[in-house]
Amino acid sequence: MPARQPAEMAQAASETGAKKVHRTWDRVTVSAFLAGAYIAFGGLVAITVSSGLDPATWGTLPTLFTGAVFTLGLVLVLIAGSDLATGNMLLVPLGAMQGRIGVGDVVRNLTLVLLGNLLGALFVAYFLAVSTGVIGDAGAEPGSSGALTYERLAGIAEGKAGGHTAWETFLRAVGCNWLVCLAVWMSLAATTVSGKILAVFFPIMAFVAMGFDHVVANMFFLPAAIFAGVPDLGWGDALLNWLLAGAGNLVGAVVFVGTSYWYLFLRDQPAEPAQAEEAERS
Predict the structure, then answer these.
(1) How many other C-beta atoms can be found within 10 angstroms of the C-beta atom of residue 171?
(2) Domain assignment of residue 152, given as a range
(3) In a domain, 203, yes or no
(4) Do residues 220 and 39 make contact, with C-beta atoms less than 8 angstroms apart?
(5) Which of 159, 167, 174, 184 is deepest in the core (most CB within 10 A)?
(6) Is 59 left (phi over 0), alpha (psi -120 to 50) or beta?
(7) What is the DSSP letter of 125?
(8) How far apart are CA 34 and CA 31, in angstroms?
(9) E strands along the chain, which residues?
């Protein structure tokens, strides 16, 4: 089956966004919990793979390794199927722009999905990252795997919590979700699993390598650091980062991807009644 063309991708994105709001709250919550856990898995393996790589020797290559393996998170989200807030920030508003759903539907869906993502990320951070010892702590023996992963996590979390101004964090979040949503957008062109994986790999690798801020990834990195006992890092720092990253992610999705492609391909293509009814039934 040939790949979809951009106009077809736009219609598919709009229909997908509309379908996402016509489900019961419990199904959305479970789906979002899974997505939060999947992104946390990507973050956990990224820490594990890139820990212990001295920048004096490796330069900036650790960020490339981090980005390359972090793509696991979005691959799991797209192929296994779940609701990730940053992707829904593109798809659900796009459905509203074409008149398939209302603004209230968008707000309710994004709020519920963000909550579910947070629960999934917290679960992995506490039970599978820290409680398992995969992420060590400050008391780990120097040079051990626990000490190396702890130091890597601490460096990432400290950079996200206090390494940038509020404006810088917001802009990094805009750039992040511009790339994430392009990954989601391009995956709609593919009709095979391998094609979807290839479509998402480079944009996701790029945003992580550049140090941009993804609100759901930060729902894993910052709590994991707090649970592991990284000093001078608290829940107030995490909440501020999530607010800034979430706002920037929303702008990146809606303005630079959703509105742009709505204008190019959907502005003169209102949803047909039959399509809207089908979406409501699904």
Answers:
(1) 18
(2) 6-268
(3) yes
(4) yes
(5) 184
(6) left
(7) I
(8) 5
(9) none
Q: Profile the chain (282 residues) by mean pLDDT over runs of 10 residues.
A: 86 94 96 98 95 82 91 97 98 95 96 98 97 85 84 94 94 98 96 95 96 97 96 95 98 98 89 41 30
The residue type found at 243 is: L
DSSP-based three-state secondary structure for 202? helix
Nearest to 216 by CA among 62, 135, 80, 110: 110
| CATH number of 238's domain | 1.20.1080.10
Which residue from 7, 5, 9, 25 is spatially nearest to 17, judged by alpha carbons?
Answer: 9
Residue type, 234: G
E strand or H helix that includes residue 128: none
> How far apart, in whole angstroms, are the C-alpha atoms of residue 209 and residue 212?
8
Nearest-CA neighbor of 168 among 104, 222, 248? Answer: 248
Residue 157 in any domain: the answer is yes
CA–CA dist 116, 136 (Å, integer) = 26
Quick one: pLDDT at residue 220? 98
Number of domains present in the structure of the chain: 1
**DSSP assignment string, 137-179:** -TTSPTTSHHHHHHHHHHHHHHHHHHSS-HHHHHHHHHHHHHH
- Tally of residues, the chain: 282
| 224 neighbors 135 (Cβ within 8 angstroms) | yes
Angle at 210 between CA 218 and CA 138, to 5 degrees: 50
Residue 87 domain-assigned (yes or no): yes
How far is Cα 150 from Cα 236, in angstroms, rounded to an integer?
21
Cα separation, 18 vs 279, whole angstroms: 6
Domain-located, residue 277: no
